[in-house]
Specification:
The protein is mostly beta strands. The chain has 3 helices and 31 strands. The protein starts with 28 loop residues before the first strand and ends with a strand.
Length: 401
Amino acid sequence: MGRGAYGTAGLLALALLTACSAGPAEDPKSVAMAGGARSASVGVSPADKSANVPTDQAVVVSVQGGTLKSVRVDGGKSGPLKGVLSADGSRWRSIGTARPGSSYTVTTVSVDGSGRTSENKSTFSTVKGNKTFDIKNITPNKDDTGLTVGVGMPVMITFDQPIADRVAVERNLAVHSSKPVEGAWHWFDDQHVDFRPEKYWPAHTKVRVEADLAGVRGGPSMYGKRNVRLDFKIGRSQITKGSTDEHVLVVRRNGKKIRTMPMSAGQGGQWKYYTTSGIHLAMSREPVTVMTSPGIGPGSAGYYQLTVYNTVRISNSGEYVHSAPWSVGSQGNSNVSHGCVNISPDNASWFIKNTLIGDPIIITGSPRKLEPTNGWGHWQENWKQWLKWSSLKAGPTMVLR
C-alpha cells in the first residue's frame, strides 16, 4: 500500500487501549474460606498455564461472591502489566501489551462477603517473536526542528522495518494536546506514518505523542522493541502567503499582517524552473546553502553552483525562500529564478529569524503543483484524501493534563 517515494526526515486516527477486548473470564477457581463461609470465586483469562498467548490479548480477572483487593501481573525482566479495576471491584483488565516470549504470573487477592482474604496465582506465556521493529526517527525533535514549531507541523514517524499490521501499530499511537483537535494518522508507505490535525494546530498548544509499541505486533513474528514519548509545543500562528503573479510575500502573525516582502519566483520555461504552488511548510533554516543546477552537471550548458545565505527550505525538490541580492531589481515585478522564492538580503535575514519549522508558506499562481510527498506537502491533501490512508480514521486528540 505504499505511495512511492517519501521525503521526510522523517511524522495520528488516535490510539485505543492497546489490549484487545476479552470475553468472560476463564478457569474460575473456588477459594475455600475458613469456618465454612461462602468462598469467593476468582476467574483469570488467559487460563492457567496457557502458552503462545498473543501479546495484545488482555489479562482479565473477575470475581464472584466477593471483591478484588489487588491484582498483579508480573513478567519478571519484562516488567509488570498495568491494569484498571472496575468501580465495584468485581473485574480487573490489563492495559498495554505484554512482551513476546515472556512468562507472566497473575497474583490476585480477593475478599469474600465475610471480609476474609485469599490469594490466587496462575501463569501464562506469550508467543515468541523472531525479530523486533523500532522507531528510527520521530519529527519534530530537539535536534532537527526544535521543540517549538509552527501551526502546520505534522508528527512524522519512520520505522526501521516495514510494518505489515498497520492497525495494531496505529491503535498504539496516541496524541494528547492541551487544546483538543480532530486529527488522524496517515500511512505514506509501510515505514512512514504521519499525524496532522484536520485544520492547523491552535497557537500555543502543548502536544504529547505516546508510541506505546513495546510488544505490539508489527507483522508475522515481529514485535515492537520499546515505547517512545515526545513532548513539543506549537508556537504563535504565523502564515506566509505569496503569489507568483503579484510577486509579493505577505507574513501574518496571529492574523495580523506584520511584513510585506517583494519576491521573484521561478521563471518557468522548463517545468523544473516553476516554483510549486501549494501549502508548503518551513522544513529547515540554513544560514548557508550551496545550490547546484538540478539535473545538469559541470561543463554542461546552464550548470551553476552558488552559495546562498539565509535560506528557508520549503520542499524536497530544491525550493527555498532565500536571499538573492542579484535579483533585487526583479523582486516585486517579475519571475527570474530557477524555482526558488527570491527576496532581498534584509528581508531574508528577517524571515529566517522569524520563521519556525512547520510554519505554513503558501504559494499560488504557478501551474506546477506541490506534490503531497514532495517534502512536507501534507496539507496538499484535503481531509477526505488524508483519511483514505489512515487505518483507524479520525478522532479527537486526548486532553493533555
